[in-house]
């Protein structure tokens, strides 16, 4: 059985087995928070800062109307304390970026977001690039 915990930012499941572990981890496919209904509470824009990018670039996030730095996320509350989130390019998910761009209009309607123009940078990913990124992340070898 897989661990039942999910990343407090993006809702990606912990990838560790259900055996006892003190720290949760999901290294391969952190989602874009907008896919799960997260938004900036002040601007109402869809939240597009993946947790791994937030840690890497030391961005900020809001939780319970307070602002925190991603690198200090464990201070935001008990649901954040036991997570290990790496801030490196290897864990950046082009798939979820591509998905968010492909379904942007549906997400805007579903969650009543305001548009986030940061998505313009992601619109350049081709389906081929996304598939190659998935293969790299999961160590899939093409025949």
Summarize the structure in words.
The protein is α+β, with helices and mostly antiparallel strands. Helices cover about 25% and strands about 10% of the residues. The protein contains 5 helices and 4 strands. It has helices spanning about 50-55, 80, 95-100, 105-110, 125-135; strands at about 25, 60-65, 65-70, 85. The strands form 2 sheets. The chain has a two-stranded parallel sheet with strand order 1-4. A two-stranded antiparallel sheet has the order 2-3. A hairpin with a 2-residue loop joins strand 2 (about 60-65) and strand 3 (about 65-70). It starts with about 25 loop residues before the first strand and ends in a 6-residue tail after the last helix. The model has no long low-confidence stretch (mean pLDDT about 85).
Short description:
The chain is of the alpha+beta class and 143 residues long. Helix content is 27%, strand content 8%.
Features:
143 residues; alpha+beta; two-stranded parallel sheet; two-stranded antiparallel ribbon; 8% strand; globular
Reconstruct the topology from this structure:
Layout: E1 24-25, H1 51-57, E2 60-63, E3 66-69, H2 78-81, E4 83-84, H3 94-102, H4 104-111, H5 127-137
Parallel strand pairs: 1-4
Antiparallel strand pairs: 2-3
Task: Profile the largest sheet.
Answer: 2 strands, parallel
Task: Give the helix/strand class.
Answer: alpha+beta
Based on CA atoms alone, the radius of gyration comes out at: 15 Å
The topology string of helices and strands comes to EHEEHEHHH
Global geometry: globular
Question: Strand arrangement, largest sheet?
Answer: 1-4
**Beta-strand proportion:** 5-15%
């Amino acid at each position: 059985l897989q661990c039942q915990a999910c990343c407090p930012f993006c809702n990606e499941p912990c990838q560790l087995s259900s055996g006892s572990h003190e720290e949760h981890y999901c290294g391969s496919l952190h989602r874009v928070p907008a896919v799960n209904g997260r938004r900036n509470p002040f601007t109402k824009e869809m939240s597009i800062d993946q947790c791994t990018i937030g840690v890497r670039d030391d961005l900020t996030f809001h939780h319970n109307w307070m602002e925190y730095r991603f690198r200090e996320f464990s201070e935001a509350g008990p649901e954040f304390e036991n997570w290990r989130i790496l801030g490196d390019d290897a864990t950046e998910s082009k798939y979820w970026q591509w998905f968010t761009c492909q379904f942007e209009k549906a997400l805007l309607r579903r969650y009543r977001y305001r548009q986030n123009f940061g998505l313009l940078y992601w619109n350049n990913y081709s389906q081929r690039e996304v598939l190659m990124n998935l293969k790299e992340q999961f160590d899939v070898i093409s025949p």
